[in-house]
């Protein structure tokens, strides 16, 4: 199910700098969430497994089944929205899992995704947004008045944006030691730039819903792109410093404005 992945010199150097004990593996099948029976195979490659578990009181009454299962303590790896590479701290040492869906992507982009995952692991932050929001996830649910799937998507996006406020400092520093990765980071950002700048019009025309717009805008934060309102308020030191409280307040103000 899992095989150790050989890393290029630049990515191996990033691992040494940010997460020297991390295990990087390829997965033979694509997935959004690996069920316990398959996730537990990671135990053959690491020292120990410790499933994440969160209080039921943190969850709104109606949440996607996969989120409820993750919070329950079942050993699952990966959640919808993780993209082509997932990482987990439920293993010791932490594990980064590369999905088959990366095949066909430019090698430079894959290298960036691997390096990004290593930098995120090195931050020591929760692997999923529930560990970030904690009981504030219920407050976010009330603030957005979206259905459970869209609330999940917004929460995951907001957490991705918060991480991006921190990781982009490491990415910018690659110019000195890892110029190939710095170029890949900037190239990935340039591919988002036009879509991000056109978000207000796309939302106004009904071509993009709020959850998708939030996901795109928050993905752009790690690239340092200029964001349109109301997402520009997320690219701030205040969000970096105050995290979930700030995110909930932003959602409350944003949805109040949308209703006016």
Question: What topology emerges from the helices and strands here?
Answer:
Layout: E1 2-4, H1 9-18, E2 23-27, H2 36-39, E3 48-49, H3 65-72, E4 85-88, E5 91-92, E6 95-98, H4 107-123, H5 129-133, H6 136-144, H7 148-172, H8 174-177, H9 179-197, H10 199-204, H11 210-221, H12 237-259
Helix pairs in contact: 1-4, 4-7, 4-9, 6-12, 7-11, 7-12, 9-11
InterPro entries: DUF7089 (IPR055515)
Pfam families: DUF7089 (PF23363)
Descriptive overview:
This protein has 2 domains: 128 residues, no CATH class; 124 residues, no CATH class. Helices cover 55% and strands 8% of the residues. It is built from 12 helices and 6 strands. The strands form 2 sheets. It has a 4-stranded mixed beta sheet with strand order 1-2-6-4, with helices on one face. The longest helix is centred in the middle third of the chain and has 25 residues. It is globular. The model has no long low-confidence stretch (mean pLDDT 95).
């Amino acid at each position: 199910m899992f095989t150790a992945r050989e890393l290029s010199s630049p990515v191996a150097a990033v691992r040494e700098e940010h997460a020297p004990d991390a295990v990087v593996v390829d997965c033979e099948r694509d997935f959004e969430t690996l069920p316990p029976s398959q996730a537990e195979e990671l135990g053959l490659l690491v020292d120990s497994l410790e499933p994440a578990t969160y209080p039921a009181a943190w969850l709104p009454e109606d949440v996607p089944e996969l989120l409820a299962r993750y919070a329950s303590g079942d050993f699952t790896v990966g959640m919808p929205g993780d993209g082509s590479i997932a990482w987990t701290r439920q293993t010791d040492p932490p594990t980064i899992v590369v999905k088959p869906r990366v095949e066909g992507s430019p090698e430079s982009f894959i290298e960036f995704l691997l390096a990004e995952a290593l930098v995120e692991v090195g931050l020591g932050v929760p692997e999923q947004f529930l560990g970030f929001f904690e009981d504030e996830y219920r407050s976010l649910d009330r603030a957005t008045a979206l259905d459970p799937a869209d609330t999940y998507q917004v929460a995951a996006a907001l957490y991705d944006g918060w991480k991006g406020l921190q990781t982009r400092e490491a990415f910018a520093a690659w110019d000195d030691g890892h110029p190939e990765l710095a170029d890949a980071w900037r190239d990935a950002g340039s591919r988002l730039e036009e879509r991000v700048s056109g978000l207000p019009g796309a939302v106004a025309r009904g071509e993009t819903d709020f959850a998708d717009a939030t996901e795109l805008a928050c993905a752009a934060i790690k690239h340092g792109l200029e964001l349109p309102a109301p997402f520009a308020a997320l690219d701030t030191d205040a969000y970096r410093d105050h995290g979930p409280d700030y995110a909930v307040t932003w959602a409350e103000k944003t949805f109040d404005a949308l209703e006016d």
